[in-house]
From TrEMBL:
It comes from the Bacteria. This is Transketolase, N-terminal subunit. Its cofactor is thiamine diphosphate. Residues 22-272 form the Transketolase N-terminal domain.
Length: 291
């Protein structure tokens, strides 16, 4: 079972190291596919790493364990950030990563719960994730389970009206076991979110729907782990309390300095010299953060 890593002074350092390794693995997947979502994958890497190595209760050897926490990747196009984590944890062989998007591979450019162990929701069209997660949270509570449900959304995904229908329902039902995380990287496939449909302040909008809302640094493992801990404390104190949303402020393409924050690199391909530059930039980030 993956539990929060032991109360260890090196925990944040370990998570940072994992985030670097998973970014490099993400580059390898895109190399196989010939194109990939660098911007949204790298912006949510610390979120995914902190969840899977420091919070979610899962069993790689028993992916359908009824008592597991559920995770819904609403922004399914960022799956190239998630697949290396699942492989590293042992949900499927690491060799499978080399088949990403190839004919017959279980690893498509959106996750498929019918094919990939460890995936709880098959994403595709954006905007469904929070509704699915809300149903899961209601369901596990009705079943008398202590499972937590986490949904990762993109800020561009908030343009979908179904998100706000789910937000209203979740607070009405008092789903304290539901944690939504918005990867607020300010970029979508059509450009900057501020120019398309600006939902800021995102935390204020969720609060208006009756949620407990906080903003966190989405690239700080320490801040994310603290926010998860506080979520558990509120849930334990009031099991019928409001759901929680963490608005994680992030940078699209984080770690590759020459594409960071650029809407043009929501999706693309870094090959040859550019790929070498990307690897060097990611490794510099690793050393810059104290390694």
């Amino acid at each position: 079972m993956t539990e929060a890593l032991a109360a260890d002074t090196d925990v944040v350092s370990r998570l940072r190291e994992r985030s670097i390794e998973m970014r490099l693995a993400n580059l390898e997947l895109v190399e196989v596919a010939g194109s990939g979502h660098y911007g949204p994958s790298f912006s949510c890497m610390e979120i995914l790493v902190s969840l899977y190595y420091g919070f979610l209760r899962v069993r790689p050897g028993e992916p359908q364990w009824p008592g597991r926490d559920r995770f819904v990747l609403g922004k399914g196009h960022a799956c190239s950030a998630l697949y290396p984590i699942l492989a590293d944890l042992g949900f499927f062989p690491e060799s499978t990563l080399g088949t990403f998007t190839r004919l017959g591979s279980p690893l498509g450019d959106h996750p498929d719960m019918r094919k990939i162990p460890g995936i709880d929701f098959s994403s595709g069209s954006l905007g469904h994730g929070l509704s699915i997660g809300t149903g899961m949270a209601d369901g596990v509570r009705l079943a008398g389970r202590d499972s937590r449900v986490v949904v990762l959304l993109g800020d561009g995904e908030l343009n979908e009206g179904q998100v706000w229908e789910a937000a209203a329902y979740a607070s009405h039902r008092g789903l304290a076991n539901l944690l939504a995380i918005v990867d607020a990287n300010r970029v979508s496939v059509d450009g900057f979110t501020r120019d398309l449909l600006d939902f800021e302040p995102i935390d204020g909008r969720f609060a208006a729907f009756g949620w407990h809302a906080e903003r966190v640094d989405g690239h700080s493992h320490a801040d994310l782990l603290e926010a998860y801990r506080a979520f558990d404390e509120r849930r334990a104190a009031d099991p019928d309390g409001p759901p929680t949303v963490l608005v994680a402020d992030t940078v699209a393409g984080r770690g590759v300095d020459f594409i960071e924050g650029m809407a043009e690199w929501h999706v693309g391909y870094l090959g040859g010299v550019d790929r070498d530059r990307a690897v060097a930039s990611i490794r510099r980030m690793f050393h810059r953060e104290g390694h």
